[in-house]
Amino acid sequence: MKQPKNLNFGSVYDIMSIFRTSWNNLVPEQNQSMVNVMKKADKNATVHFYPLSHFRKEKIKTLADWCYSYWQQVYFSVLDNKVHYALGRGSGSGTRENHNFFINAFLEDEELKKKDIITSVLVSYENEALAYYFHKGYAYVNSNIGSNWEGDIRTKLDKSRLPYSDYSSHPCLRTKIDFCNNGKRKNVYHAMTEDITAKNFHRLLKSKKF
Q1: Which of 177, 167, 168 has its CA nearest to residue 133?
Q2: Fewer CB within 10 Å of terminal CB in the chain, N or C?
Q3: CB distance 7 to 1 below 8 Å
Q4: Sign of torsion over alpha carbons 38, 44, 46, 52
Q5: pTM here?
Q6: What percent of the chain has pLDDT over 90?
Q7: Number of C-beta neighbours around residue 114 at 10 A
Q8: Average pLDDT for the chain
Q9: Residue 190, phi then psi, degrees to nearest 5
Q10: Between 146 and 2, where is the model more confident?
Q11: CA-CA distance, 140 to 158, in Å (whole number)?
């Protein structure tokens, strides 16, 4: 990873370098402390991290290792030449609360809303970037909205028309990730897979009907 002051949050290479660097090079923050950091920071980013690999690492040494199995919305800030970060995701009650906390902060905190921030939607496999999309401004992951939070956050989001990413997934059919802004959808990643046993693969192989 570069010196934090030289990081470009609009570069997929720099973003991936943060995910791959040692925990020791990052400063973890809790909800409100991260908001306070973002207000003072030189640069801010939020990453919609969608990992397609589901194999747990034996030793968790990096942020990418930690984010191996489930989507994360990660917040990064550079302050005093250090990278600060906080996590929100949908795999546990506490992290779902984190996810909604930060969305609500960007809905209601006027000082935070005025800060420049870059959103990146990043699809990865085994710590490598498969697809990505950058948006200038704040966007959220459209999952677990309102979970472990006040139910009216969905109404606030509908009124705000903030952009968001969402995904659909089926174990045998597809994984699809879109970015939605002003009613328009941009496909970031779309994978199609088939279970070959359901296609009588061996029968077709013998008959050479391909």
Answers
A1: 177
A2: C
A3: yes
A4: negative
A5: 0.86
A6: 52
A7: 8
A8: 85
A9: -150, 115
A10: 2
A11: 12
Q: Is pLDDT above 50 for 203?
A: yes
Residue with tokens 């992290």: 95
pLDDT digit string, tens, across residues 134-184: 999 999 999 888 776 777 888 898 889 999 999 887 654 468 899 999 989
Sequence spans of domains, the chain: 4-162
Query: What Rg value do the Cα atoms of the chain yield, rounded?
Result: 19
DSSP secondary structure letters along the chain: ---GGG--TT-HHHHHHHHHSBGGGEEE--HHHHHHHHHH-SEEEEEEEEE------SS--BHHHHTSSS-EEEEEEEETTEEEEEEEESSSHHHHHHHHHHHHHHHH-HHHHTS--EEEEEEEETTEEEEEEEEES--EE-SSTTTTS-TTHHHHHHHHT--EEEEEEETTTEEEEEEEETTEEEEEEEEE---GGGGTHHHHHHHT--
